[in-house]
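Let's study my pick:
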Amino acid sequence: MLGAPMATKLYVLPGSHPCAVVEAALELKGIHYQRVDLLPIVPALAGPLLYGGRTVPGMRIGSERLVGSRPIMRRLDQLVAEPPLLPAPGDPAREQVLEAEHWGDEVFQAVPRRLIDAAFLRDPAAIESYGADAKLPLPSAWLRPALPLTARAMAWKNGASDSAARADLLALPGLLERVDGWIAEGLLGGERPNAADLQIGSTIRLLASIGDVAPLIAGRPSERLAAYFGPLAGRVPAGALPAEWLSPVGGTPQAVNGAASAGG
């Protein structure tokens, strides 16, 4: 890996898809960094001191502090120009990639967060699998009794009510069609990922880790965006989400019906 101009630390929550975006960008550019795994409560309490924010990903480059996957990726392009995460200035595709990246961050990113929180409320033990590759300050056995409380806190923070999660499921086929369209246009899915590929691909990978949701993604063009990332340690077993959420209700797209059949 290339040496960064100064010591680089990336602050993450295990299993976080925005954090995975930045990790993939750092690896793509060959920038050496230290990953710091945080417990769920730490960003809100200590994030402002550590890296200047209350959410992840957070980064310190020497004394510089950055928060959020998009600002961090812009800074990485400044630090190491090749390979670029955006088309060159003046290239018409640049604004299109920025638009897709923004949609992936502001719209699409929240969908698996609410769905997985709804699943964790019903199967809190699944949370542990998403931290399998993390280096946390406490043994996992010590954290296990707190998983139900962690699931409730995450759902509250992310607005993961049953109604919101169910609405996300119904909307998901249409969201995936939008991603499939960008791939068909050649905006996404190239041999070398751009910023939008990473932003959207990390969300696809997390969605596919939810057993009840994976059949909605399998076989679609958008599924291959997850291949820009390594395997995800975590998984929520099929059956965590209520079966009635996965059956056609009031004009639900046919893809949801297919998910019900595949999920048993």
